[in-house]
Design brief:
This protein has five helices and eight strands. The protein is of the alpha/beta class and about 220 residues long. It has a single domain, classed as 3-Layer(aba) Sandwich (Rossmann fold). Helix 3 links the parallel strand 4 and strand 5. The protein binds NADP nicotinamide-adenine-dinucleotide phosphate. NADP nicotinamide-adenine-dinucleotide phosphate binds next to helix 1.
Length: about 220
């Protein structure tokens, strides 16, 4: 049993991770600004703003694992990287492992090829900043952390999000930083992404690594 703190634990990805980790008997804290109407029994829901370092430090205190599931949208658009760097620093100070919910665009189509985000001509302009902020975590910020921090950046398949909920199939495929070739259109549902991420937490066999999960 691990003490797992999910920053953004009421969001699309975060709430699925919270539910999966709690169902497996982990001690789970879900942190967000507003409380969810849909609470998982046994989960410790903590309300606060991740832009406040003292609040973050208090919620991360005592964690074995921190999951960063914030999104670079809305008020966090301008501070997403700073907040995630702070989460990484606090996780390292706590000797906790860090799992970051990443984006598809930071993956590569093939070994040695540029990441998808290096050509955004096919993505709508309104999501360019979001994609670039997420990719900067894996390209710059996480590799720059002290070697003592054990992080895993977990990209989903392209079709992931509230716009494409998908169903729980109780299966996933795990790849590295090369996007898994889609068999069913390149999707993963939130519950199956969460199964893969909690398996990674439990197996503890990826260190300072970029992985991806797809059906
Ligand atoms: N295909 C893809 O590549 C893909 C698709 C979707 C998502 N993603 C990635 O997955 C990650 C998570 O996205 P998501 O869609 O799950 O996000 P989401 O549904 O918007 O959830 C964000 C979570 O963060 C919390 N939050 C927001 N601002 C906060 C703050 N200042 N302090 C504390 N908590 C805060 C929200 O709750 P409150 O608002 O109540 O605070 C919520 O729990 C992102 O990095 C995103 O880029 C990738």
């Amino acid at each position: 049993m691990s003490r797992i703190v999910v920053i953004g634990g009421t969001g699309y990805a975060g709430s699925a991770i919270v539910a999966e980790a709690a169902a497996r008997g982990h001690e789970v804290t879900a942190f967000s600004r507003s409380l969810s109407a849909d609470r998982v029994p046994g989960v410790n829901y903590v309300q606060g703003d991740a832009t406040d370092e003292a609040t973050l430090a208090s919620v991360i205190s005592g964690a074995d694992v921190v999951v960063a599931a914030l999104a670079p949208r809305g008020p966090l658009a301008g501070t997403f990287r700073d907040v995630n760097r702070t989460i990484a620093r606090l996780a390292n100070a706590e000797n906790a492992r860090l799992f970051v919910v990443g984006g598809y665009s930071s993956l590569r189509p093939a070994a040695g090829a540029p990441r998808f985000m290096e050509d955004l001509s096919h993505a709508p302009a309104e999501v360019h900043d979001e994609i670039l902020a997420g990719a900067a975590l894996i390209m710059e910020d996480l590799p720059a952390t002290p070697e003592t921090l054990n992080w895993v950046f977990v990209s989903p398949a392209l079709a992931f999000g509230a716009f494409a909920p998908g169903e729980r199939l109780d299966k996933y495929r795990l790849g590295d930083d090369i996007a898994i070739q889609p068999e069913d259109g390149g999707a993963i549902s939130a519950p199956d992404y969460a199964i893969g991420l909690v398996d990674l937490i439990e197996q503890d066999n990826r260190h300072r690594a970029h992985v991806n999960l797809a059906h």
